[in-house]
Specification:
There is one protein chain. The protein has a five-stranded mixed sheet with strand order 7-6-10-8-9, sandwiched between helices. The protein has a three-stranded mixed sheet with strand order 1-2-5, covered by helices on one side. Strands 3-4 form a two-stranded antiparallel sheet. Helices cover 30% and strands 19% of the residues. It is built from six helices and ten strands. A hairpin with a 2-residue loop joins strand 6 and strand 7. It is an alpha+beta fold and 246 residues long. The protein has three domains: 79 residues, no CATH class; 75 residues, Roll (Ubiquitin-like (UB roll)), CATH 3.10.20; 69 residues, [2Fe-2S]-binding domain (DNA polymerase, domain 1). The N terminus is likely disordered. It binds FE2/S2 (inorganic) cluster (2 copies). One FE2/S2 (inorganic) cluster binds next to loops. The site of one FE2/S2 (inorganic) cluster has 12 residues, from loops.
Length: 246
């Protein structure tokens, strides 16, 4: 499945239909799923005997943290077409910041929401949920990823580093310290993702140029700093690493 694209698996289930909806992020889930279901219903109307031509859509959906009353929209249209979201859980194993976890996840949960809400590691943020802002950045098997676009089952067995995993014995990682020292933090919402992107860059390039830093952080958006202080922080961190940091 392409990351970030909603995925819909449809099959008959008794006298109803069971639909497994997987989308990129929690807050978009209801709308995206409902749109896909509307499309599906249009197709079903073409198949004789499946639904009545004027059958409407009764919507269920949404994230697991929403109360049931918020998860239902409808009925819409003249009739009623009942849809259920398959919430079967599976056990996955995650190694996060060196700690091994077994987590029961639903197939559509993202890595971001699983780490934040199941493991309680809330340093990684959800800014957009669509892979655009980088606030959710983590390092998975050595690669920088946007965890809002990775499904939790895709992370099964993988080694994950989050912002919480950078400090050692109470000492901030040089990148974290540099962000503080240079004033690269204002509201701080983008900062965990920025720092993870900077770490991923410095892991492979200990002597980045300003252009290297710009490119390395190109997937991370900041609405406060204007970026200059952030780039300055990463360059300062690189110098710190040369002086014998982590
Ligand atoms: S929350 Fe993942 S890229 Fe914005
Ligand atoms: S410091 Fe506020 S978004 Fe970057």
């Amino acid at each position: 499945m392409a990351h970030g694209r909603p995925f819909l698996h449809f099959h008959p289930f008794g006298d109803r239909f069971c639909v497994d909806v997987r989308t990129a992020s929690g807050f978009r889930r209801i709308d995206v799923a409902a749109d896909r279901l509307e499309d599906l219903l249009v197709e079903l109307r073409q198949i004789e005997g499946v639904v009545e031509p004027n059958t409407g859509l009764f919507r269920y959906g949404g994230g697991r943290h929403e109360p049931p009353s918020d998860r239902t929209q409808g009925p819409r249209g003249a009739g009623r077409f009942e849809v259920e979201v398959d919430m079967a859980k599976q056990i996955i194993e995650l190694v996060v910041n060196g700690h091994r976890y077994e987590v029961a996840v639903e197939p559509h949960w993202t890595l971001l929401e699983t780490v934040r809400e199941e493991l309680g590691l809330t340093g990684s943020k959800e800014g957009c949920g669509t892979g655009d802002c980088g606030a959710c950045s983590m390092i998975v098997d050595g690669r920088l990823i946007t965890s809002c676009l990775m499904l939790a089952p895709e992370a099964d067995g993988r080694d994950i580093v989050t912002i919480e995993g950078l400090a050692r014995n109470g000492d901030l990682h040089p990148v974290q310290q540099a962000f503080i020292d240079t004033g690269g933090v204002q509201c701080g919402f983008c900062t965990p993702g920025m720092i993870m992107a900077a770490k991923a860059l410095l892991d492979v390039n200990r002597s980045p140029t300003l252009d290297d830093v710009r490119e390395g952080l190109a997937g991370n958006l900041c609405r406060c700093t204007g970026y200059a202080k952030i780039y300055e922080a990463v360059l300062a961190a690189a110098q710190g690493l040369h002086r014998g940091g982590v």
